[in-house]
Amino acid sequence: MANTSMEEFEALLNESFEMDTPEEGSVVKGKVIAIEAGQAIIDVGYKMEGRVDLKEFANPGEAPEIAVGDEVEVYLRSAENARGEAVISREMARREEAWDRLEKAYADELRVEGAIFGRVKGGFTVDLGGAVAFLPGSQVDVRPVRDAGPLMGLKQPFQILKMDRRRGNIVVSRRAILEESRAEQRAEVIGKLSEGDTVEGVVKNITEYGAFVDLGGVDGLLHVTDMAWRRVNHPSEILSIGETVKVQVIKINKDTHRISLGMKQLQEDPWDLVAAKYPLNSVHKGRVTNITDYGAFVELEPGVEGLVHVSEMSWTKKNVHPGKIVSTSQEVDVMVLEIDGAKRRVSLGLKQTQRNPWEVFAETHPEGTEVEGEVKNITEFGLFIGLPGEIDGMVHLSDLSWDERGEDAIQNYRKGDIVKAVVSEVDVEKERISLSIKALGGDKFAEAAGGVKRGSIITVEVTAIEDGGIEVEYEGMKSFIRRSDLSRDRAEQRPERFSVGDKVDVRVTNVDMKSRRLGLSIKAREIAEEKEAVEQYGSSDSGASLGDILGAALKGDDE
């Protein structure tokens, strides 16, 4: 019995020792019994006292709040040091306490309060009431923060993104809190807005494609095409950051909370008056605003723009880039060709404000007029000659020379030569002018052959003797008499019996206006003369010989 009671007593004694003696590495309660030399002396029970620097009782940037008699929790690192004092830490106690609290908040996805107190690589340090957390630079605000000075030491809520007690890591975000409150604010503002409302806002940001306008906690996008009825190259032409503007709510997307705004919708649409103001075929002054490969845009008035298609830019410059004809900001006269109110399109013409140069040429240069110009181009079918009004006329191969083949005659011309020609035809519709160089001195053949008919006897001059016949000339026209046509007597059909310069009477057998040749024959003349003599002086069956008849005819001529 005594043994039992001794054992019980020992167990109770050990239990009391365990209860009264704090365990090293745990958080214990203590009482401040004195404050001296910047330290607080704390009694942690079981006749153990320890010292803690006063700064451990202060929040970052604040004075320590501690007084004698205060009960505080401290972390017991060691029960006794060399001086016989307990080694205690308020900071470590706060950390342990904070970790417990933070882990619970992280599990419940609750916000925690803290203060930014330092700057480190990639972000900032935050005191979360004892535990130090890392705030990445990207998580400070919704937009990049250039100066975090005003945020230092300020108590504010944070969201825990990640924590690892074993490694002592905590990552927090201030941005998540802002986004959440912003979303609530947005929802509230958007709830009050309706499409078609006119509201005031402040320009917060300007980009190439538009401007973001703050409508009191929510941003709306004012696209560059909705700023004005006229063409706007960059939003900064119209708006500046910080400016207060009146806008209309065009569209609200309830899912994405995106708001589209417009300024031009609050102004009168100039297109309402276009048809009345710009009748078809009327001419107006405009300003070139944009040049593309297919034409140029011309502003008739702010908000009303028309396209001059490349085909309507010039009468003469056909395959040229519009930028070679007009330049941006240039003032031009244009004619209204077509208006499409539904598509808000005006088709304009530049060349229609000038007279058709082919029409002008036809009026000032009737057929037969002599012109002079530079050889602009030489092709396989003729010459192109520059004419007044920046137009070209063409001399076909067949109109180059009376005497030479066109292929040979064209070899006499070079690009840049100044030549004379006669207008033979002007086709305004096809924009074509036909010229003739060979017609310059008139039609020599027609003039020479005017009095010559088939059967006429003419006198020609021998200009050349060849094996096949002789070449002769009649009033500047060359002809060739073949050997067989030199005489009716075969023995006399010899070209060598003629000499250059001889005058010979010949009969015209053919006048070919197309090939511009006279068919000539001595043989035909002799036969014709014989026939005439027979008719006059006898008949072939009267018994008289041909010699007698010709003799009589010649004798008659002599008399």
Poorly predicted regions:
none
Structural class estimated from helices and strands: alpha+beta
Please summarize the sheet with the most strands. 5 strands, antiparallel
What is the straight-line distance between the termini? 206 Å
Total of helices = 9
Q: CATH H level of the largest domain: which superfamily?
A: Nucleic acid-binding proteins
Domain S1 motif: 25-91, 109-175, 196-264, 281-351, 368-438, 455-523
GO molecular function: mRNA binding; structural constituent of ribosome
Function: Binds mRNA; thus facilitating recognition of the initiation point. It is needed to translate mRNA with a short Shine-Dalgarno (SD) purine-rich sequence.
Pfam family, one: S1
